[in-house]
TrEMBL record:
PROSITE patterns: SPOR (PS51724). Keywords: Membrane, Transmembrane, Transmembrane helix. It holds the Pfam family SPOR. It comes from the Bacteria. GO terms for biological process: cytokinetic process. This is SPOR domain-containing protein. GO terms for molecular function: peptidoglycan binding.
Amino acid sequence: MFGKTQRGVSERPTKPKQPLIPKWLGMLVVILIVLSFGVALMLWKPWAPVQPRNEITSEHYQEDTNKDYRFYDLLPQQQVTPIPEQAVPENKNQQQPVIVEAPSQTQTDNVDVGINAERTAPAQPEYILQVRSYDDPDAADARRAEIILNGLSADVVQSTEGGKTWYRVISGPYESQNAAVIAQQTLQHSGIDSIVVKR
């Protein structure tokens, strides 16, 4: 009963379903998409060569440039005179650095007090670089900072001489004379003069 149609009752004809969007509206949307894509390509111009950003295309700038390129013609005509071999020294004499010895402190004689008395070995000399003495602590500290920026150690030592306070800028100590001379040359390359002091 439930699955059968009754006699004499005809089935309803099925209506074709209508699309959600009419055909003319779909065509209009497709045409607008194609047109917007074409306008975007015309504005973007991917086929055009790319101009560098830092290139100046101003006419005023190009007028100011020097158009005189005579040196291309003059340079090959120049004659270079070599230095005669007699003028070139065979070996370069390296100037020995001046080393100043610091005044020694009063030395006490080693006296054996008993059987267990230890003898002290003579201390190895150490070297420092004395850069300069200032009467202004800020100037001394500024010079100390310059030395530190060159990769060397530096200190400011305060001393009083003749009733006046001095701030001495030193670098070191260095264990060998060679290390002190290398440090002195490093400072000289930066325009800082110094002397090697042996203590």
